[in-house]
Amino acid sequence: MGAVVSEPVAAVLDAMLALIAAPADGSGVRAGTAPGLEGVQVFDGPPLGEVEVGDALALGLSIEDVSAASGEERPGWGGRRTESHVVAGLVQSSTGGVDVAVSRVRAYQLLDALRAVLVANLDLSGTCDWARLVRSTYRPVQTAGGCLVLIEFAIRVDATRFEGA
Fold first, then answer.
1. Mean pLDDT in residue range 56-60
2. How many angstroms separate the CA atoms of 76 and 160, rounded?
């Protein structure tokens, strides 16, 4: 039997943030603590201000015209409802320089570090049945301040909710 939770997306986001970063400071920025994410700026949704040059990871955020999380539910027997949700996120790497390759390699290292956390914690501390990285999109950007590499990703979350008496 799977994990039984009341609101899988909220619980999963909280569990993921707890696994990868320290609590937020007064400006909403968290510091990454998971292996490979140490010192990375981590955000719960969009940042409150400009993101500094460097590395960042945001959960529950998409730069496309896509919702931060979406899902579907299927009623089952005995008051159980299975749910599948997709949580959007974004990895950013920039050095302030013009070498896209350096930022690209670093951005994929950050994505791999997030993947490793998910693989090591498939049920995210019991908040879901299974969470895994299912999709990513690479986007290099050149700006006056240097190159920036963005990788949008999607995490699929499957969970079971009990609704019954």
1. 92
2. 10
